[in-house]
Design goal:
By secondary structure, this protein is α+β, with helices and mostly antiparallel strands. Helices cover 53% and strands 12% of the residues. It folds into two domains: 118 residues, no CATH class; 91 residues, Chitinase A, domain 3 (Roll), CATH 3.10.50.40. The protein has a four-stranded antiparallel sheet, sandwiched between helices. Helix 3 crosses helix 5 and helix 5 packs across helix 10. The longest helix has 24 residues. The chain is elongated, with a radius of gyration of 27 Å.
């Protein structure tokens, strides 16, 4: 069977993916294969299981039908590990900045919310909660006009980036259990109380995620450049866009 043309790949919805892997391989060409160890074994095991190629005979037949060697198969399986290494080398120095920029995506908040359209009613409900005349949950279930009514006003845990930006800023400066007086938010008078705020630390798993996310952004940009013609479709992939 003849090789696929660019147009055929595009019609099959595979053109972007082909450029993606071409650019990944071009960028990681100088990165040595990871040494044998548990990480390599796990990556290879997952890849072979996904393709149902654990049997050596099936693996050999799969390679032969595609004109590949066993080493090619190993390179495909280890592509994510080499890409991770490339991302760490390229973006590791900016990971703290990226973490601070996106921190609200990772911090989790649980809060109680009650919203009504009437300012006087909001003031009365706030006073009842503050004075202990009624619980937040009971009043939210009876009076709140949003979907939080179904949960007694409780929202979360959700990423801190999820609530309305003004509400998120209020929750950021709150102490657990702090009850705020009614505040106008768009067409609503809201009463809000912070229940819990769990801040995420920049640990190794999150660091790896952040550098790969930055690599993904970089890759999407380069793929778009390639597709839009800044790199000809027949360009030597070993050169890679810089």
């Amino acid at each position: 069977m003849d090789a696929f043309t660019d147009r055929e790949l595009a019609r099959l919805g595979l053109f972007d993916a082909a450029w993606r892997f071409r650019l990944m391989d071009a960028e990681t060409a100088a990165i040595p294969a990871p040494p044998p160890g548990p990480e390599v074994e796990q990556a290879l095991g997952r890849f072979l299981a996904e393709l149902q190629l654990q049997d050596p005979a099936a693996r050999q037949a799969w390679c032969q039908s595609r004109g590949l060697e066993e080493q090619d198969l190993l390179n495909i399986a280890l592509r994510p590990l080499r890409w991770q290494t490339w991302c760490e080398q390229r973006f590791g120095g900016s990971v703290e900045t990226e973490y601070l920029r996106r921190k609200a995506e990772f911090d989790l908040v649980t809060y109680s919310l009650l919203r009504v359209r009437d300012a006087d009613l909001a003031s009365e409900l706030h006073q009842q909660i503050r004075e202990g005349e009624a619980s937040f949950a009971d009043l939210a279930a009876r009076h709140s006009e949003g979907p939080e009514q179904r949960t007694g006003g409780v929202v979360g845990p959700v990423p801190l980036a999820t609530p309305h930006p003004s509400l998120a800023r209020l929750l950021q400066i709150s102490q657990p259990g702090q009850l705020w007086p009614p505040k106008l938010l768009e067409e609503w008078w809201i009463i809000v109380r912070l229940d819990t705020l769990t801040t995420t630390q920049l640990d190794d798993p999150l660091r790896r995620r952040l550098v790969v996310d930055q690599g993904e952004q970089w890759l999407r940009s380069r793929v778009q450049e390639a597709i839009s013609g800044q790199n000809p479709p027949d360009a030597d992939p070993s050169a890679g866009p810089r």
